[in-house]
Design brief:
The protein is an alpha/beta fold. The protein contains 10 helices and 12 strands. The chain has one domain: pyruvate-formate lyase- activating enzyme (Alpha-Beta Horseshoe). It has an 8-stranded mixed beta sheet, covered by helices on one side. Strands 3-4 form a two-stranded antiparallel sheet. The protein has a two-stranded antiparallel sheet with strand order 10-11. The structure holds iron/sulfur cluster (SF4).
């Protein structure tokens, strides 16, 4: 199986990303987000492990990648796992990529990425997207028990923004748990340096829905009604009803625009609301 693969090989009908490739140094993820979608289809997901012979395979496979290609790191595993502090395979992989004319789109919840600024700033192109669900430390601990605290991500966003373009993924929006102060959150993300807000609502799958109920039993009734009774199944996930999603996405859009930054939604079927490419690719070279 290839290490570097096509992003979205299943061709999700709501995906509006430009063609790009995907690369993960690890299988699984230790951030333990209870809403995680990837945990539904990867075995033993919350026990991250390095990919076998990652660096050797990367050296071989990267030769076949056309110049100028965008590679997304990473979509079903954070490239900056706790393990990465010791193993440094993401870092060593970046050293290889720094010699090739490719652009890298990072998605992370980890402050460890700061360690690699020396390499990241010298890539042909780099955009770093930090993911947040909430800035509330206690709530984040329940939603993402193994991930660095939001405060730490904010600091990392602020540092990275001086060197490369950055975006913030307000993703997923967990209605109504994390959606009461969208405008306030976006103000803080903008102040920390985000040039674009990328957002998406929480999509329920059997495994993550069960976890959400376990951790937030007080919301189980409201979520059951919104998702299981009124919601809609799209591409294997259960979505909130469209009118509710539209209100949430519009709120994020309005707040982003009033802060003067770019906005996009991801897999909501609302591309017409976007003011930029959905995944942040437009930010390459726009420090
Ligand atoms: S950081 Fe992403 S891949 Fe890792 S557990 Fe959280 S949602 Fe899943």
């Amino acid at each position: 199986m290839s290490l570097i693969s096509k992003f979205d090989p299943w061709k999700n009908k709501l995906c509006s990303c430009l063609p790009k490739l995907s690369l993960c140094a690890y299988t699984g993820c230790g951030h333990g987000c209870i809403y995680c979608y990837a945990s539904s289809y990867i075995f033993d997901f919350f026990r991250p492990r390095p990919k076998k012979d990652f660096l050797e395979r990367l050296k071989r496979e990267i030769k076949r990648v056309p110049a100028g290609t965008t590679i997304s790191m990473a979509n079903s595993s954070d490239p900056y796992q706790q393990l990465e502090k010791k193993l440094r395979i993401t870092r060593d992989g970046l050293k290889i990529l720094a010699n090739i004319p490719v652009k890298i789109l990072f998605i992370t919840k980890s402050c460890l990425i700061i360690r690699d600024i020396d390499i990241i700033r010298n890539l042909l192109g780099a955009v770093v997207c930090f993911s947040f669900t909430t800035l509330d430390k206690k709530l984040a601990k329940k939603l993402e028990p193994g991930a660095p605290e939001p405060e730490c991500r904010l600091k990392a966003l602020s540092v990275l923004s001086r060197y490369v373009p950055t975006a913030a993924r307000l993703d997923p929006l967990v209605w109504p748990l994390t959606t009461s102060d969208i405008a306030g959150t976006i103000k803080i993300l903008k102040a920390a340096g985000a040039k674009q807000i990328i957002t998406s609502t929480y999509k329920a799958r059997p495994l993550n829905f069960k976890k959400m109920f376990q951790v937030f039993p007080e919301y189980s009734k409201i979520w059951k009604k919104a998702y299981a009774e009124e919601g809609k199944s799209i591409e294997g996930s259960c979505y909130l009803p469209e009118n509710k999603r539209k209100r949430l996405i519009q709120k994020v859009r309005d707040a982003s625009l009033s802060e003067g930054i770019l906005f996009s939604s991801c897999r909501e079927g609302m591309v017409s609301l976007n003011t930029a490419l959905c995944d942040g690719q437009q930010l390459f070279g726009r420090l």
